[in-house]
Amino acid sequence: MEKILITGGAGFIGSHVVRLFVNKYPNYQIFNLDSLTYAGNLANLTDIEKASNYTFVKGDITDANFLTQLFTEHNFKGVIHLAAESHVDRSILNPLEFVMTNVIGTVNLLNAAKTAWKNDLENPLFYHVSTDEVYGSLHNPEDFFLETTPYDPQSPYSASKASSDHFVRAYHNTYKLRVVISNCSNNYGPNQFPEKLIPLFIHNIQKNKPLPVYGKGENVRDWLYVIDHARAIDMVFHGGKNGETYNIGGFNEWKNLDLVQLLCKIMDKKLGRTEGESEKLITYVTDRAGHDLRYAIDASKIMNELGWKPSLQFEEGLEKTIDWYLNNTAWLDNVTSGDYQKYYETQYAQR
Fold first, then answer.
1. Does the domain formed by 2-188+224-252+292-313 have CATH 3.40.50.720?
2. Which of the chain's ends, N or C, has fewer CB atoms near its CB within 10 Å?
3. 18 by DSSP, 3-state: which?
4. CA distance 285 to 302
5. One pLDDT digit (tens) per residue for the chain, 351 residues
6. For residue 321, is it left (φ>0), alpha (ψ between -120 and 50) or beta?
7. Measuring CA to CA, how many Å separate 284 from each of 186, 191, 261?
8. d(CA 342, CA 62)
């Protein structure tokens, strides 16, 4: 069985990628490496945790010695690197934490892979999963991010991801490491940590708490259903060209305020409330520092070269997402209370 290492596999996007690969590829032994920081939750993977082709490894990518030992022990035939600090607001408060994980952690992984694969550089693949935020902000409504768009990161988070992208390309050019990179738009769907807009607002609407909207709510984002993103990662991993970049987006732009109003409308219907009741919870707050106005991805390359396309319209995906959270209130309550962090201790500590 070929061993594939997926970093950050207990996180939001990572857990969906791990699940897809474990279920779809019984010939792969999937190693899920996660340090289980606040955003890592093994309860996201209870359905596959006992699969014979799944192994969880608790470890930190900022620990270079640990990674060297891991790569020495296991002959990985590929790495899908999703481990990252990802919340812009947190990066503004603590930029160094993002540098350590997103930059130093990525370089540690690259070094471990380079050393382990030094005699086999043509076969193993290092796949780095990144973000559209590295491109900065779009001001012309006719423009879209292309794979050739110059980098212009505006937040500590996006700067750290831009740096990690550059290091991946540098290792490809300098050491001939086989790599691919993808840059995706905003993800939404089941198991997302409720610091992000959609799960936070679903939770707040349920609890009749304020819905804090930055500025006037005019910032525009492209939204991508997380399972569609996992499918795209699968296609890039298996069909992407060495050294290439693939933008992954939903062709699905929404102003923040319009999205929140749609969310309120659907939630009122689901919760049996009077239409417009949840909108009263909207509260405008001081805009985020350096808040990019608009992100929008042109995903033509991955569609034309690999045959990928989004499977859901946004309204359908949003309804499925809301239904998941309403049907998994225990998961959401455990995350918001912090109880989810006890899962590793009870399920894995004695193994």
1. yes
2. C
3. helix
4. 37
5. 899 999 999 999 999 999 999 999 999 999 999 999 888 899 999 999 999 999 999 999 999 999 999 999 999 999 999 999 988 888 999 999 999 999 999 999 999 999 999 988 778 999 999 999 999 999 888 899 999 999 999 999 999 999 999 999 999 999 999 999 999 999 999 999 888 889 999 999 999 999 999 999 998 989 999 999 999 999 999 999 999 999 999 888 999 999 999 999 999 999 999 999 999 999 999 988 888 888 899 999 999 999 999 998 899 999 999 999 999 988 888 887 766 566 555 555 434
6. alpha
7. 21, 26, 13
8. 23
Active site residues per annotation: 132-133, 157
Region of residue 215 (phi > 0: left; psi between -120 and 50: alpha; otherwise: beta): left
Beta strands in 24-132 (DSSP E): 28-34, 54-58, 76-81, 125-131
Tokens of 120: 């086999």
